[in-house]
Specification:
By secondary structure, the chain is α+β, with helices and mostly antiparallel strands. It has one domain: ph1033 like domains (ph1033 like fold). Helix content is 25%, strand content 35%. It has five helices and six strands; from the N terminus they run βαβαβββααβα. The chain has helices at 15-20, 34-41, 98-103, 111-114, 125-134; strands at residues 3-8, 26-27, 48-53, 59-72, 82-97, 120-123. Strands 2-5-4-3-1-6 form a six-stranded mixed β-sheet. The radius of gyration is 14 Å and the shape is globular. The two termini are 18 Å apart. 33% of the residues are buried.
Length: 137
């Protein structure tokens, strides 16, 4: 299993809206960055990811799971853009802020800390374990 991080501005798509989609999940559409798209192309069913609120909050608030592998993004006719579907798995008991990640030396190489603008990013197994620990799991 691989681990990922999905960033969303809460006013556009929040954790609560993701949860409301239930087991069916929702397309992670609208991504127009090649690296983020390529990350989604690499995802497999059952991969897990952190759900991160960007701009407002700047914190990891929950865990999601890939429930459909890469397919054409329904928000465009341009065949270059693909997306995955994700569903909410569980909230973090304690949100993990960007500040907390930056302050923890064990996370100094995490993509979130070093390349904050990338909307879909890989997370190593060790980073996953540390963030889960910080979040109360």
């Amino acid at each position: 299993m691989a681990y990922w991080l999905f960033k969303s501005e809460p006013f556009k798509w929040s954790w609560d809206r993701q949860v409301a989609k239930g087991a069916a999940g929702e397309e992670w559409d609208g991504v127009r960055n090649y690296q983020a798209r390529n990350n989604m192309r690499a995802m497999k069913l059952g991969d897990q990811g952190f759900f991160y609120h960007s701009n407002e909050g700047k914190e990891i608030v929950g865990i999601v799971e890939v429930c459909a592998e890469a397919h054409p993004d329904s928000t465009t006719d341009d065949p270059r853009w693909e997306c995955v579907d994700i569903r909410a798995v569980r909230p973090l008991p304690r949100p993990v802020s960007l500040e907390m990640c930056k302050a923890d030396p064990r996370l100094r190489d995490m993509v979130l800390v070093n390349s904050m603008r990338l909307s879909v990013q890989p997370v190593t197994a060790e980073e996953w374990r540390i963030v889960c620990e910080l979040g109360g799991l």
